[in-house]
Amino acid sequence: MTLTPQEIRALPKVVLHDHLDGGLRPETLIELAGEIGYELPYADPDMLAKHFVANANSGSLVKYLEAFTHTMAVMQTAENLTRIAREAVLDHARDGVVYVELRYAPEQHCEQGLIMQQVVDAVQAGLEEGVSDALEEGYTIRAAALLCAMRQADRSLEVAELALANWGTGCVGFDIAGPELGFPPAKHAPAFSLLRDELFPVTIHAGEADGLGSMSQALGMGAARRIGHGARITEDITDFGTELPVLGHIAQYVLDQQIVLEMCPTSNVHTGTAPSIAEHPIHELRDLGFAVTVNTDDKLMSGVDMVSEFQELVDVGWSRTDLFEVTLAAAWGAFLPYDERADLADLIVEGYGLDE
Question: How many other C-beta atoms can be found within 10 angstroms of the C-beta atom of residue 136?
């Protein structure tokens, strides 16, 4: 039975991979840009939204990332960061999301005098306000933050220390983001060494614009518990998509350890990581038992939300059971203590009516 958008919206969802700077409301971006005299490509929300999607749908991660210049311009004050984080949480709640980890790079929000701890404080205030606003509208959502270091920069150790300092007060994990090709995890070895010693949760963008070498470093030296995207794990699976695939040692490790793959179907198509939703490797990887999850990545840039992501998968054959399984995998993959993940999993089971 085909699910309607209304039925999909009502299902509980978990988002593990969503960038705060990639998900602004077009109206908010236009308003905040006007306040500082920053010129955007369009002043009309619909036209601006279409512009971002057209830019994203270039088949190039580098081109995709260029659009963040516009959002970063308005994310340099505590007030704006709090507002944007608040709206991000509320928007997810309205889409049926019950848990979201929003990621951002503190180092990118210091152009007007903020220090990185002030950035973290401002975003955390917004997350808390968003949860409160959602509750007033009748939605229950929990929101946490992942701190990103930019892989083309040299502040990863500083960001890792910042993440540790804020562990337990909203920050639940660490990531490196930005252009993957040419900037492997090895460039940030001191940060990952510190995080390994402290047993701090790590997810790493890998297997999107670069291949197995990037994923191997993420899993080994980076000790990543999850992989951001990871679609190119298929390069380590001979005869992928056939009845007799043969897994290489990296793919076998990811499968055996149930390393969560934070897949973002629409974004992966836009960056050229997958040719289409129908041909995305998420389908076969799911069938092989990999811990695949579905995420938005950048709501503004790709013109998506969790309802549309699920709808795209339903349109190519996914069932309600398929949606449940990837959501449950996301719940267990959240960077939360075991008992809290168990509670989240129970919430998913209840929301799908499977506890009766």
Answer: 8
Which residues neighbour 144 within 8 Å (Cβ) at sequence distance 6 or greater?
99, 100, 101, 102, 127, 170, 171, 172, 335, 336
Clarify whether 129 is annotated catalytic: no
Give me the tens of pLDDT residue by residue for the chain, a chain 356 residues long: 689 999 999 999 999 999 999 999 999 999 999 999 999 999 999 999 999 999 888 777 677 777 899 999 999 999 999 999 999 999 999 999 999 999 999 999 999 999 999 999 999 999 999 999 999 999 999 999 999 999 999 999 999 999 999 999 989 999 999 988 899 999 999 999 999 999 999 999 998 988 899 999 999 999 999 999 999 999 999 999 999 999 999 999 999 999 999 999 999 999 889 999 999 999 999 999 999 999 999 999 999 999 999 999 999 999 999 999 999 999 999 999 999 999 999 999 999 998 75
d(CA 261, CA 242) in angstroms, rounded, equals 21
Active-site pick, 87, 208, 312, 325: 208
Pairing state between β 13-19 and 226-229:
unpaired
Q: Would you put residue 119 in left (φ > 0), alpha (ψ -120 to 50) or beta?
A: alpha
Tokens, residue 351: 């929301």
CB atoms within 10 A of CB 232: 22
Partnered with residue 246 across adjacent β-strands are: 238
Task: Tell me if the pTM is above 0.90.
Answer: yes
Q: 113: which 2 tokens? A: 């005098």
Collapse the DSSP code of 259 into the 3-class scheme (helix H, G, I; strand E, B; otherwise coil) and give the result. coil
Q: Which of 244, 194, 189, 252 is nearest to 221 (CA)?
A: 189
Question: 7-351 — its CATH code?
Answer: 3.20.20.140
